[in-house]
Amino acid sequence: DKRAALEKERENRIAEAEVENLTGSRHQEGLKLRQKLMERHLQIKEISSDGHCMYRAMEDQLTERGTTLSLKELRAQTAQYMRSHADDFLPFLTDPNSGD
Question: What angle do CA 22, 40, 58 make, to 5 degrees?
């Protein structure tokens, strides 16, 4: 029946994608990166994409080095630094109305 054929085709596509995931260049690159990190006693850490991910990554690294700052403190310090060094960041900012 048509429904069974569509399901079989879907399962085949999933199986092909799984093989590609294991043999594809992205996977191979990930393996090489993990090896290089392992040699340096480093690791990849998963940080949830929750709108605070950059600050959560910073928080993680600071905590490992004995510094504890809240997300609010990290954001405030980052904003203050950017305001104090505006010329360094202006090339990366655009006007939302003109795109300039």
Answer: 85
